[in-house]
Amino acid sequence: MSLQDIRNAIVSQADEEIAVLLRDHQHNLRQLTQESEHAIADLKRNLRSEHEQKIQQLRTHASMRFSIEKRNMLLQKKQELLSRLYAQVIDRLCGLPTPDLRAFLSHCLAQCPHDGTVCAAKEHIPLLKELLKAQKGVTVGDPIDARGGFIFLSGQQERDFTFGHLVDAYLRPLTEVEVSKELFATHT
Q1: How many other CB atoms sit within 10 Å of the CB of residue 121?
Q2: C-alpha distances in Å from residue 15, one per residue of 2, 22, 126
Q3: Are strands 157-160 and 150-154 parallel, antiparallel or unpaired?
Q4: What is the pLDDT of residue 187?
């Protein structure tokens, strides 16, 4: 075997090894490319899924906020309407005919002790003076800034019979639920 044959055999063997290494390298490169493409596809799928979930969460959150704000606005409007209704009740009490007003104020005075001072709304002072003529120990004091009724002061006691207080402290708590049901009933 000549030197040329040995050289050719070495070159041929080197070429085969290079070809095998090149095939292995290309196979590894294809495999890495496929794995990378799969990883990128999975990542894109995950990102898309997370993005869709975020969008759905934002939509749900916005919808809930809208519902809460709508309900709060509706409740606020209902409270305003109820307040106006009870203000009209006070107006009607102030506008009672004299005989009815006399009976109402007499009933309120009957709840008071037999001695003290009545401080009344300006428009009710004359009627209260007339009602208190027969009672000893009860005097009419300075007028108060109220929409009807009076405050009775006796020693350390104070009893509020102003129309606003009677409506807000007694009538409204007793009737508000029923009035709300009647006013805001949903008819199907």
Answers
A1: 20
A2: 20, 10, 127
A3: antiparallel
A4: 57
**Sign of torsion over alpha carbons 132, 137, 141, 144:** negative
pLDDT one-digit tens code per residue, 97-134 = 999 999 999 999 999 888 899 999 999 999 999 999 88
Q: Where are the domains of the chain?
A: 1-94, 97-183
- Tell me if the pTM is above 0.85: no
Distance, CA of 53 to CA of 119 (rounded, Å): 67
Alpha-helical (H) ranges within the chain are 3-94, 98-110, 125-132, 163-166, 172-183
Please enumerate in sequence order all residues whose Cβ is within 8 A of that of 98, keeping only pairs 6 or more positions apart, or say none.
127
State the maximum Cα–Cα separation within the chain, in Å, rounded to a whole number. Answer: 153
CATH class, domain 97-183, is alpha beta
Cα distances from 55 to residues 44, 47, 49, in angstroms, run: 16, 12, 10
